[in-house]
Amino acid sequence: MNGTKPKKVYFYGTCLVDLFFPDAGMAGIQLLRRAGVEVVFPEGQTCCGQPAFNCGYWEEARDVARTQVALFPQDLPVILPSGSCAGMMKVHYPELFHGQPDEAKVRAFSARVYELTQFLVDVLDVKLQDLGEPVKVTWHSSCHAVRDLGLKGEPQALIGQLANVELAPLAREYECCGFGGTFAVRHPEISGAMVTDKVADATATGASVVLSTDGGCLMNVNGALEAKRSKLKVQHIAEFLWERTRAR
Amino acid sequence: MHAEKEIHFRDAAAKALLDPQLRANFRRAMDGLITKRKAQFPDPRDLQDLRDLSTAIRSRSLLCLPELLEQLEASCTKNGIKVHWAETCEQANQLILGILQAKGAKTLVKGKSMVSEEMHLNAFLESKGIEALESDLGEYIIQLDGETPSHIIMPAIHKNKDQIARQFSQKIKDAKYTEDVDELTAMARKVLRQKFLDADAGLSGVNFAVAETGTLCLVENEGNGRMSTHVPPVHIAVMGLEKVVAQLEDVAPLYAILTRSATGQAVSTYFNLITGPRGAGEKDGPQEVHLVILDNGRSRIYADPQLRATLRCIRCGACMNHCPVYTRVGGHAYEAIYPGPIGKILTPQMEGVGVRHDLIHGSSLCGACGEVCPVEIPIPEILVRLRREATHDDMASTVAGKGTGRTATEDWAWRLWAGVTKRPALYRVATWFATRFGKALPASAPLIKNWTQSRTKPVPARRSLSERMRAEGASHE
Questions:
Q1: What is the pLDDT along chain A (248 residues), one digit of tens a residue?
Q2: Interchain CB distance below 8 Å, B9 and A187
Q3: Residue B91 and residue B97: Cα distance in Å, rounded?
């Protein structure tokens, strides 16, 4: 891409956004389009394969991953509204395909993968104008976005561009919310204790919305908040940014 | 082939989670340790430099482990330290018993040693009529109650001050009840002082063994390590075979990162460099020094190029201090010598991945452990590798119990998942059904039931993103 901004990108919805947070996916696509980028959304998207990969079923994960890589043949950036799935495709696909005949092809694909906020800040350098009412939010940093993918405060930088948004720091921001994919159902007691603590920390911030870049974390935290009938809501960062900055 | 007697981490963890005092004790202690460690590494680049160096030292040491162990034996022998090799814990126990019986020893005073926990040495010696007394304050506290360590460097961290105050007033002869920390420490000190003077032999662990010089390094804060190794006439050191480094220069960076990662200290109160028994004309030190080098499954771990990283561990405990699971359930729930993330990868490799399948899955793979590990052990990656090993027996590896965690149900579930997920047309039908009828799934359905213990049931959107994009007629190419 040689430092110039790409004119066209692929968008990978991810299974959780596809099924549970389609508005976040639409918002991500709109944010990219507004930045002057054409968005290609290939048909046939299912799942990155992470659940099987993490559980040790690598053959099954590879079968699925192969069908997904094949959907993105052109040399264009692949944008995901999820730190965890982007981490899977960028960092773990090369591990998964190590020694396989199509390893080189997969590595070339992995090199093109970005998480949405990472792409908006580091590549497109977007500037946002806040059109929303004053609001206090807090940020849950997803483990895989930070530790696998190496996000360095891009989401917070985007939130920081919004004049009417106060970002309240979350205590133990870098502690896992307890989702962990199948962990949440294999070890429901531990996972439940973790999300209960996370919700308590989020509530203590006094914010009205918990933002995150990951469907898994959002589903987990949202479920725990609803179970407590909390007024606190969760929202995917893409949806939050788009709602506050779109012309009405 | 199924693993026999699988140990269910879930059950023990669920029990621990119901103890609010335990949870409060761990949360407070771990939050404190996280803060103290952070204060020791103000510059992330300095930290990374030191991690890189420490990782390189440990990796290089392991690369030539067989040669270094031979060199260590030669150097120690030259220094007058008698070296003994044990493949199993049983052999190590017998060796130590032999040393003690040869001296007619009836009492052994111990500095802290996790390897001796691995060997269940205290119980073994007691069965042979030899008293083994723990002299590390934390170890002393748990020994009074017949407990095992709940943390590798802070063995009694599961107890708070009030609990220890009650325990001391009941268990120590003539002790009065006090919650004053200095007074409590003084009580233990009074008991232990006499034990050091009376003991027939002393035992310690080893933090680093230097091959070039035959030096045994011991890191401690209480002086009990020095007393255990210098006052009694015989000193027995026990170490896992991975603890060797090539040269004295290797020790400084490892020591610097060990104390900072462990307790957030720039240096420990004591740092002992033991180079042999009392020399001619010297007034103190033991007359005999023995070094017992234990394998206990380590050479099997060593044989695997990826799993070998497990042996880089310098036992700082930072992984458990930062682990969201350990912080909530504490060390005992792991039902293992080594708890926390390092235990989660070490225990299954020692005991078998099938019997410990549930433990291997007891992680959200959040990566906090790998992030703080001073020698960059990729704990989450190794956990995933062990999950593979537990369910597959066709891998070219030497992992203990490989394939014995496999169940027909899980196999079937992943095959079904892959069968649908790799066929977009089928997946489309499945998501269509989920969006239209997902709401109707009962909260008591299998797996969903586990989810809804602490959360509401997730409800799919009415139309998926793919469906909306199709309706929009977006460019698909």
A1: 446 789 999 999 999 999 999 999 999 999 999 999 999 999 999 999 999 999 999 999 999 999 999 999 999 999 999 999 999 999 999 999 999 999 999 999 999 999 999 999 999 999 999 999 999 999 999 999 999 999 999 999 999 999 999 999 999 999 999 999 999 999 999 999 999 999 999 999 999 999 999 999 999 999 999 999 999 999 999 999 999 999 87
A2: yes
A3: 10
pTM of the model: 0.96
- Token duo for residue B129: 């009529």
CA max distance for chain A: 54
CB A165 within 8 A of CB A133: no
Cα gap B184→A241, rounded to integer Å: 57
Q: B121-132 burial by CB neighbour count: b if 16+ within 10 A, else e?
A: bbebbeeeebeb
CB contact under 8 A, A183 and B463: no
> Are A70 and B427 within 8 A, CB to CB?
no
Cα separation of B289 and B280, whole Å? Answer: 15
Cβ contact (<8 Å) for A147 and B450? no
Instruction: Name the strand (E) or helix (H) holding B238.
Output: strand B234-240
Residue of B nearest to A91 (CA): B381
Which residue on chain A is closest to B389 by alpha carbon?
A56
